[in-house]
């Protein structure tokens, strides 16, 4: 990943713009729960894919809930992003293994709905490459929330970013 300084809200807006149409086609309302203007260190193409994999799952496995919400909030030194659905949720005995490659909860049902069991493994790989963390919380019958964190950009990061832009303009 190639990290740059980017406002958390820009990553949220990008995800909304990119996936709201697909959600609507599936009869699901994709909405923003909350956001923050804090800047993080992110590779926007890569985080776009993380949101895509999580939102795709939320729409597929949480379809019954009819809405998916995303958000970003400030934590100490980092921003926490999340994708929340109101579907069937994930049985607790599977929560530990859900990020493993090819791991799927309901093999018969998931085969029907397509997919290979790679989406979450890829999302985890990308988040770890950012030195962030990814986790899930789920209450059976009430839905699932996937969280990932990205490091907050420091003033030095912002200065370095600005210098890069300046150099690019003057050379
Ligand atoms: P792929 O993403 O490669 O198309 P997949 O969706 O099966 O296939 P993952 O995205 O890695 O693979 O998800 C792994 C499994 O975790 C899914 O098969 C599903 O059983 C479960 N899962 C993922 N997200 C949710 C969710 N939001 N609600 C309920 N179960 C989920
Ligand atoms: Mg998936």
Automatic annotation (TrEMBL):
It comes from Acidipila rosea. The lineage of its organism: Bacteria, Pseudomonadati, Acidobacteriota, Terriglobia, Terriglobales. It is found in: Cell membrane. Residues 1-154 form the Histidine kinase domain. This is histidine kinase. It comes from the Bacteria.
């Amino acid at each position: 990943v190639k990290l740059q300084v980017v406002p958390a809200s820009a990553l949220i807006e990008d995800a909304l713009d990119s996936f709201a149409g697909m959600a609507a086609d599936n009869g699901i309302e994709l909405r923003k729960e909350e956001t923050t203007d804090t800047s993080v260190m992110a590779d926007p193409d890569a985080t776009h894919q993380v949101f895509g994999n999580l939102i795709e799952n939320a729409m597929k496995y949480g379809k019954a809930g009819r809405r998916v919400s995303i958000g970003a909030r400030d934590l100490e030194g980092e921003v926490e992003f999340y994708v929340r659905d109101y579907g069937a949720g994930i049985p607790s005995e599977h929560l530990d293994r859900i990020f493993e490659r090819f791991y799927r909860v309901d093999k018969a049902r998931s085969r029907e709905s397509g997919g290979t069991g790679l989406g979450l493994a890829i999302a985890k790989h990308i988040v770890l490459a950012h030195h962030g963390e990814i986790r899930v919380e789920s209450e059976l019958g009430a839905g699932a929330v996937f969280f990932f964190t990205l490091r907050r950009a420091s003033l030095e990061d912002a200065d370095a970013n600005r210098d890069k832009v300046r150099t690019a303009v003057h050379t």
